[in-house]
Amino acid sequence: MNWLHTYINKFRGGKQVPPRAPYYEVLWSAVGAFLGIYAVYEIGHFEQFHAQDSLFLVGSFGASAILIYGVPKSPYAQPRNLVLGHTLSAAVGVACAILLGDFPAISTALAVSLALTVMHLTNSIHPPGGATALIAVIGSEQIHQMYFWYVLSPIFTGAVIMLLVGLLINNLSPHRRYPEFW
Question: How far, in Å, CA of 47 to CA of 145, rounded?
């Protein structure tokens, strides 16, 4: 029973909650997130998608915005992770939709788990990539008919737009440096 006590004890955590970010960091984060999502929406022409697909896609990039502009030092926010994580996950999602589209429970679960596997193997984990893979499977028929074009646009294009905004905005602050690595 000692193993059970050790296991349950892990739930307590081991560290204190980190301090809140200073106000100037909060401001830079908000400005970056606004401009990044605005640029992705406008340049990516998200209005061409069904409303549900637009919500999904902006949601996936919204999660990326939190990383890139809110915690730009995070390994998951770095350019390699952002671009490869989204792009590879999109490709995995499209493949799952094509091969297993008749089995939605399996194709959705497999898309996310394989996307995570591929991101691990390529050292490019970007948590919103899981949503990107999922969207390829659960999106509308319009998304499904795009096949692998979905990977290029809106996903790769959107990730590059977010990266460019991240480079411009994060480096305007004297307290920030982005990226930490390529």
Answer: 17
